Amino acid sequence: MTNSPVTRPTRDLSIDQQQALRTAATRLQTDFRDTFGTETIERFLHSSYDEFAGRATVPNFLPLLAERFARQRLKALARVEGKVTDGKPTVLFLCTHNAGRSQMALGYFTHLAGDNAVAWSGGSEPGNEVNPAAIEAMAEVGIDITGEFPKPWTDEIVQAADIVITMGCGDACPIFPGKRYEEWTLADPAGQDLDTVRPIRDEIEERVRRLLAELDVTAEVR
């Protein structure tokens, strides 16, 4: 297979968006050319674009979101197919909108585990933006989650996870036989003010620290 840029027709896209997608494809092909062929990379990029196209509030950001999500999915697929064997524990945090609880859990896990473990997050019904109160609450403890965005879960992401932590998505959460699941019963911060979100944030921190200890991942003392 060649590593040519994506050539799939892109209707209803501006010239700038089409160019941004071609640039994203080139970057992904450069980073994953030793792991996947162009066809797989192209399929993941465009299906990722489609995931956000119907609910994006800022269309110009769509190619960037698609690239970031495609990158995450390709990394997950590499783990599923045994092309990455670093032995790092991999955790997936799931809630309904991927806007509050799962984003705070991801923020804490990534902040505390550093490069010693892998974590992703997703939602059964992804929202349009991360909860501003959750962002503010995390900023108070020195963790910046402004770069995150609500996204769905996909089969390869669930399959790549060693542990799936669910937070209120109920029957909508994906179930794969043989996968370890754990339900964290937490209040939903959606529509709540900062004072209400703070105790939810603190409970999430406690749970993440316990999980890291169980996984024997050294957490930085904060």
Tell me what the structure shows.
With 222 residues, this protein is of the alpha/beta class. It has 2 domains: 15-80, Corynebacterium glutamicum thioredoxin-dependent arsenate reductase, N-terminal domain (Helicase, Ruva Protein, domain 3, Orthogonal Bundle); 90-214, Response regulator (Rossmann fold, 3-Layer(aba) Sandwich), CATH 3.40.50.2300. The protein contains 7 helices and 4 strands, in the order αααβαβααββα. The protein has helices at residues 15-32, 38-53, 62-80, 101-113, 132-140, 155-160, 194-214, and strands spanning 90-95, 118-123, 163-167, 180-183. It has a 4-stranded parallel beta sheet. It starts with 14 loop residues before the first helix and ends in an 8-residue tail after the last helix. 43% of the residues are buried.
Short description:
This protein is α/β, with parallel strands linked by helices and 222 residues long. It folds into two domains: 15-80, Helicase, Ruva Protein, domain 3 (Orthogonal Bundle); 90-214, 3-Layer(aba) Sandwich (Rossmann fold).
